[in-house]
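Minutes, project huddle
Topic: does the predicted pose make sense with pyridoxal-5'-phosphate bound?
PN asked that the exact inputs be recorded in the minutes so nobody has to dig through chat later. Recorded below.
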Amino acid sequence: MQRIYLDHNATTPPHPAVIDRMSAALREDFGNPSSVHHFGQVAKAALDEARSAVAGLIGADPSEVIFTSGGTESDNFAIRGVAEALDVTGRKHLITSAIEHEAVLNTLKALARRGWKTTLLPVDQSGIVSPDALAAALTDDTALVSVMHANNEIGTVQPIAELARLAKARGAVFHTDAVQTSGKVPVDVKALGVDLLSLSAHKFYGPKGVGALWVRRGLRLQAPITGGKQERSRRAGTENVAGIVGLGVAAQLARTKMGDEAARLGPLRDRLEDGILRAVTGTAVNGVRSPRVPNTTNISFERVEAESLLIALDLAGVAVSTGSACSSGTLEPSHVLKAMGFPAHRTQNSIRFSLGAANTDADVDRVIGVLPAIVDKLRSLTRTPVRA
Ligand SMILES: Cc1ncc(COP(=O)(O)O)c(C=O)c1O
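Predicted holo structure (tokens), as shared on screen:
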């Protein structure tokens, strides 16, 4: 059976050029980039090349790019780094949105336990963070505002430039988690007006376990990982050279392909979405349809348990994801859909379809083709009538 992968927001397969260059790096660039001899300098040159490629992807200067172990570390680094650097100023208030990734939400929770005051900005069913809500939440004590560029579950793109302007007017630092936009749509740190930006290689055909934090030059940041002087003393530890090389190649490829790929994926996603809404009764899209990243749709299926639909689709060869996490047999409703104010049943009947490079029209046709019978069968197992 030919399997269809529609879970690119969870991770993407590394591009063949990424794999080739990474295996060459493992073989040939094995020196420690901190070593002064030839082998060290070869590895250092590989890091420099990757740093320039990442900087090029987001309109930044290479000296402002810090390599990390991925999106989670970059988010932690940004939030903890700013919170701790500004602690002495007395600014002990942190703001984020209720629909952030756990990497941000749980970091704020951890800081709240250590005395920081935190505010979660609410969202409505559009899935867009309102600038008015931020304006109302900002105080003279606000140290940092962190709002994601695009949401990983529903794909909505947030008005970052406007939010950053508001935060900075009150003297707060602004971080954006751009893990779901970097490499997919144009990201320019200057146009966004942010101070810090997180990205992760495995969301755009690079390897897992490597990412970057962009830090505006001159920003005060406490390094959370202490040790050697790597990354200008901001992130200690011998660099993951092969991973970083892979990130660099992925960034380079994304920069050249992004425009065409977004123009291809947007209509493909729309065709999938419209096809599902037409073919299956009791379905609705979660969040606004625009602005969204071009590869993502999140659809609710009345009277269907998302987890059962995911498994049935997997048996039919289609890999998707639920907005909810299933831990030790208990279904946790999606915190994103919950924050958007959807009723409990909708937070547990929604499926995310996230498209990518290998997906074709034929894939979309097959998914639209298999879904009605699968959904009918699941609904026949429950008794409540389908809500239109
Ligand atoms: C919005 C967002 N932020 C952060 C992360 C975490 O990134 P990583 O898997 O590189 O730690 C993810 C991954 O799903 C994400 O979607």
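Observations noted during the meeting:
- Residues 70-72, 75, 101, 103, 148, 152, 177, 179-180, 200, 211 surround pyridoxal-5'-phosphate (CB under 6 Å).
- The mean pLDDT is 96.
No decisions taken; revisit at the next huddle.
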